[in-house]
Write a structure and sequence with these properties.
Fumarase C, Chain B, domain 1; Fumarase/histidase_N; histidine ammonia-lyase activity; Fumarase C, Chain A, domain 2
Amino acid sequence: MQTVVVGTSGTTADDVIAVARHGARVELSGEALAALAEARSIVDALAAKPEPVYGVSTGFGALATRHISPELRAQLQRNIVRSHAAGMGPRVEREVVRALMFLRLKTVCSGRTGVRPEVAQTMADVLNAGITPVVHEYGSLGCSGDLAPLSHCALALMGEGDAEAPDGTVRPAGELLAEHGIASVELREKEGLALLNGTDGMLGMLVMALADLDRLYKSADITAALTLEALLGTEKVLAPELHTIRPHPGQGASAANMLAVLKGSGLTGHFQEEAAPRVQDAYSVRCAPQVAGAGRDTMAHARLVAERELASAVDNPVVLPDGRVESNGNFHGAPVAYVLDFLAIAAADLGSISERRTDRLLDKNRSHGLPPFLADDAGVDSGLMIAQYTQAALVSEMKRLAVPASADSIPSSAMQEDHVSMGWSAARKLRTAVGNLGRIIAVELYAATRAIELRRHLTPAPASQAAIEALRAAGVQGPGPDRFLAPDLDAADTFVRDGLLVAAVEPVTGPLA
């Protein structure tokens, strides 16, 4: 099993994926343990002074004006966790919670939070035991961090609340800690606050969305190439010299991917051999690299934001290298929220152009010789008519999900926290959008492969043939009379989502960008 070592200088997207999705073990470096101890000594020294220090010897948020006496401070830290664990709604996915916990541990280990080494070690132990606190859908405004989600995780460290066992059952967190020999923590000054104040939930979902979208954008380039082929279009629009004169990196990458898939095709280039020759292909085919490329460039910007956030120590107050403990606003989720919303917009447009290509494949007036709806016996058979309805419904929802969450703000905490990012909400809707995008691409793949097989007198590109053969081997059937479509569409979705389409094509094309 892979082991991820947490130090003081942040972490990587690959580490987040390894822990969140693949159960990698977590270890704390000696450097991190030393930094934790040093920062804690600073907090202990401040706690012993009579002057109030926010988060150490005061209340929180709008209640920060009250000085808390030493005998009440442990209760203060327990209370902030209990009161802030106020989430509602469905449970959040296990991988999201593991990413959330790991990223909070990353910040704790920076030595900027003042948390004791033993608390950090308990966080690692809970991750390694496969114990996943129950976190709910609603509760974060994306400012002062993902407060409610992180509070539910901190509650489990205290041995309170519910958690999911490695076998998937939900039980009291205290029982699960005891079964795995993990002692619950008694939080001290600042520690409760430090476990709650971060952008970890929205950041974890951003990192995972970027990994998924990287795979889906490659898949979309493949399906766009398959559709171009099925429509007897021209690959000349993909020539590198046409894209170097508009040097957006993503556009060039998408065009190169499509050209690699189409290499050796016997279907392309027939667009001028019809009774009414086409001068050029429709936008949804011809402009595929421009749309997918713009999305790729959006991902590159989002990845830069994620990398900066992964290198950050987000807490308030924060322990500085010179020993000061200072209040700040670094917990505000605006940088992450904006790119989460931007990605949802780009994904919606990619889904939209994919659906337009599918519709063109099914329309006998625009498909250049293909049967209506790719049906076996049109009229008796409906073919893929309703598959496109399903795809259109998914596209419509993606357009709704593209409405920015970060444009909203609802004041909270008696107007102390009077502007919030809504980054958690942006992340949650992006997760839905990413799932929908995979389904939309799967429908185009299903239609395009069937259409290519219906061009029986022409030979597809070797990469296209590899994709078709792999899809059929995965249980997705080819042309023929009407049948129960849902299982085929579900299998095609799994094929795309699990990266099998890219894996089928790359042995022929070489690695796609």
